[in-house]
Amino acid sequence: MVSVSRRSLLALGAALPVLGHLDWAVAAPPKASTDKVLLNYNESPYGPSLAAREAMQRGVATAGRYPYTHMYALAELFAQQQGIGEEQVAVFSGSMAALRYAVLAFTSQTRGLVMATPSYEVPRQSAESNKAPVKEVNLNAEHAHDIPAMLAADPQAGMLYLCNPNNPTGTLTPTDAIRQALENQPKGCVLVVDEAYIDFADAPSVVSWVKDHDDLLVLRTFSKIYGMAGARLGLAIGQPALLERLAVFGGDNVPAGSSLLGGLASLEDVKLLGQRKALNAQARDETVAWLKGRGFTCTASHSNCFMIDVQRPAKEVVQRLAAHGVLVGRVWDNWPQWMRVTVGSKQEMARFRQVFAAQVEHSA
Hints:
seven-stranded mixed β-sheet, three-stranded antiparallel β-sheet, globular
């Protein structure tokens, strides 16, 4: 099988037609069963690609067998594309499962969790269930992870969690800062880099770093840019000994063969990432520019979500938009005037702007 590197994938993406020539009709999302605009869970408005849907349908016929063959094939293809060993890739029923297992494996009552705030809440929730201490560190002025403050937060930390791009802000933490965290984290600590949204950004992945670091775990998912949130398919990437520590909590935790076949078809479609990244960027940047033009501050997102300072209690705004069929969210306690908005399709973002203008801007 021919190896496809990340560099070649990026080159293919760069060679795609310019945004003005994107075929929005081809990229139209599946017809929804509701009139609501769902911009609240960072899902893809496009769903699985056509090739992935066809593969998933074929996968139904394999449901009578354990899907190990498909699981190994998925790990092998991803490893080839990333230039790492197949033994450094583990398949899970969504990256959330791998993340929870990582918290259970790397933290304890004496080895805590350090993470940013606002950020994805699952690590904190998992650590609390594990009776592990949690130190949450505010994002810096650029809304990136404050790595020096995180390193100083707990000298006995068992796990540093870094979501890049960050959820909910969509902001990036520079690669040099991630390297600083890896090189200076407490002895025995594991750095977990959650790259659920990395394919929306121009920043490089740190997946290849696992070849040289036994204290780095990287998470990837098919839920976001590949549109397979309901299929529950994710990957954990690290050295085998590190992956074995996760397997104790969920060994052979693989989804159905149909999900795995959908994942394989998604990886094989080398044009898909570039096309969806471009669609997302245009819809996101158009809406952010519109909001800024009306005096609202937004985070500098490189993802499929961003946050808006609505200049009043954000929970009230979320409720007002929901009453008119536009669902957004959530609101973080330490950012009470900010709300997160998922980037939907071109039509969905137009509807968001229409309702926002009527219910928020004009009511200020």
